[in-house]
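Reopening this ticket.

The earlier resolution said the output was attached, but the attachment link was broken on my side. Pasting everything inline this time so it's all in one place.
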Amino acid sequence: MNRKQAEALRDFPELAGLIALSEAGWRFVPSQVVDGRLTDLHGFRAWPEGWTDAIRVRSDTDVMAVRSDGNEPPGVVWECAGTLAQVVEGLLSLPAPDDRLAPRLIRASGPVLWTPAENR
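Inline output:
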């Protein structure tokens, strides 16, 4: 953990989950800024074969995450909503897509998630 992360964590302990995701290979992009203030934060983790995990954070009590398969259109095979701590715990305990215990049953159709070209 770098100095800036340590300072942010001291001021906002709920960020520990986002730091844990970042250390596990997640990438984050601010998705909406209103009046110079970040209102939404989106993160993703791209897996081989096109699988994608994604998270949307609006506040420490309004968080949602999904895993989608690599098909067109993507199918949602896992989802979780709740507090930042609950959703991060769910994501960190979610088996890798190629694990035999990973969810595979499509529960809903998902949106096409944008990811940078180098992660496809």
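Reporter confirms the inline version is readable. The chain has a mean pLDDT of 86. The first strand starts at residue 27 and ends at 34.
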